[in-house]
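so i finally got all the pieces together for this one. its two components total, 456 residues if u count the protein bits. some of the lines might not be protein, just check the labels. i wanna see the whole assembly predicted at once instead of chain by chain like last time, that was a mess tbh
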Amino acid sequence: MTSKYFLFVVLVMASVSVLALAAQKSDAPVTASTTKTPVATKRLLRQADEGQRIFEQNCTRCHASPEGFSPRISGTIVRHMRVRASLSRHEEEALLHFFNP
Amino acid sequence: MRMACTISKPSFHSSTRSILCLIFALGVLATAHSGLGQDTPLISGGAGLLTETNGGKTTYNPIIEPLLAAQLGKKVLVESRAALLESFSPKGGGQPGYDHSHFIGLTFLQGDYIATPHATVVGGEFLIPFNTYNERLTPIWIGNFQDAPLIFPLGLLASGGLGGMVRGNAIASSRYSINYNYFYSTRSGNEQFSSSRGTGGRVGLYLPEQRLEAGFSYDRILQGTHENFYGTYVWWEPEDAAFRLRSEFGRGEHAQGYWVEADYRTRAFGGLDSIIGRFEPVLRIQQTFRLNTIASDGLPPANTQRADFGLNYNLPHDIRILTSYARQFSTTGNHNVWETGIVYRFLFPAWKGRE
């Protein structure tokens, strides 16, 4: 009885995994802007994109994003997460830039 | 009730000393460098009301878990987490009213020094970094279930760590990274900072593009009967799927076990913030196996199998409703566990900093 019960649970988990993968949405390809952007602005945008990528790859693995927080604590949050999530210095800087574009 | 905070610090029962420690932590924060706009000390954590019905007996647990973090200069961070819990349960024997007990204690109080880009030195009372659950998932606003996994006590050296740790990111690139930590904990009988002598560490490999992480933990208790503990973990979060799969295996001298947990939110009906997208079904299966009759490790005394089914709802303003049902099978008896709760996650500056 117990073995059948666990077999059922494992099957349910496998089904959920397959459904989740099937539900994956491929992001729409980012189209390059045809308008010319100043070099400094491009660099800032690239840093912000990288910060967002690092945020999604590291922070949201454990917890949901907070709805918002004061920019006055963004440095403390990032330092806390650097220690807790073993982030590199580069990742810390990119995250800080993402929080304070 | 099997809560992580009470398991990790079972000996904290003196409210007065606990409050003194909290005041000490606040004092450290009061001396903190308030920085230039972004380094203001913060208060974060969770507050909630949790209920559990186990074998027909219901307990009600209001709980607050505040975390304080403050930077001292450019390289030092002081952080501390506490747990304040009150537990109410109906009196037995047909008597009216409720019995209640309380628990106040520091979960950790540590200083972190960023020594190099790849190494951070930690000193103080810290969470034992065995596998992932203790460090990552014990805050009440993060965990999908109120209960910790059955193998949670394995490798935690019966209490928190008091001593030092080196941790960091050995290699970090856009394709892979390797994180590590190594700790040494001394023996302490202090009521607030009780710990066991032990040493150990963890190494993890993370592939960001695949969102896949796997790692290995080892630690050894160095007092009384010396024992070894081994653990492995695998986490996977496919990109853009809002699906997470987490798993751990742990083995001690007297028992071993594993747990696998999956949670999912759908984007198919207007995104994660739609009415439907806020639902979060959760599933966890786990088994423990007793290797001998010595049951000093906190795991069930007999082989146990358990399945938890949860349905959480993520309300706006960082509020979460947690509900779950579990069925536990063991030769010592089968039983049901029903749990409900509401948790609020807070995050704000400790005081007004400089702009």
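Chain A has four helices and no strands.
Chain A has a mean pLDDT of 71.
anyway lmk what u think
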